[in-house]
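R.M. (postdoc): so does anyone remember the format we settled on? I'll just put the structure tokens first.
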């Protein structure tokens, strides 16, 4: 499976700047509702944050709005998974 899924990091911009998954995009949790159409255009994005809590909240919100997505958990775990898949 070589299709690269978009990784959305829902941490704050400051947290994101401190380290992130290569190629991921930063959409802080509080901006998710305002950017829902942008997210809807993505194919089953993977969500991450520091621990999986905020990405879980984003996942619930997006799924309630009919958007397929997956909570990848903490960004470091997602980063590890990406390194295994490449």
């Amino acid at each position: 499976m070589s299709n690269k899924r978009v990784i959305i990091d829902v941490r704050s911009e400051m947290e994101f700047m401190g380290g992130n998954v290569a190629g991921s995009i930063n959409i802080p949790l509080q901006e998710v509702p305002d950017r829902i159409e942008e997210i809807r255009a993505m194919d089953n994005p993977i969500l991450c944050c520091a621990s999986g809590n905020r990405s879980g909240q984003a996942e619930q919100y997006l799924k309630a709005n009919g958007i397929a997505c997956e909570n990848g958990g903490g960004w470091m775990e997602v980063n590890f998974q990406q390194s295994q898949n490449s």
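R.M.: ...and that's the designed sequence above, right after the tokens. Also worth knowing: The chain is about 40% helix and 15% strand. Strands lie at 7-9, 25-26, 46-49, 70-74.
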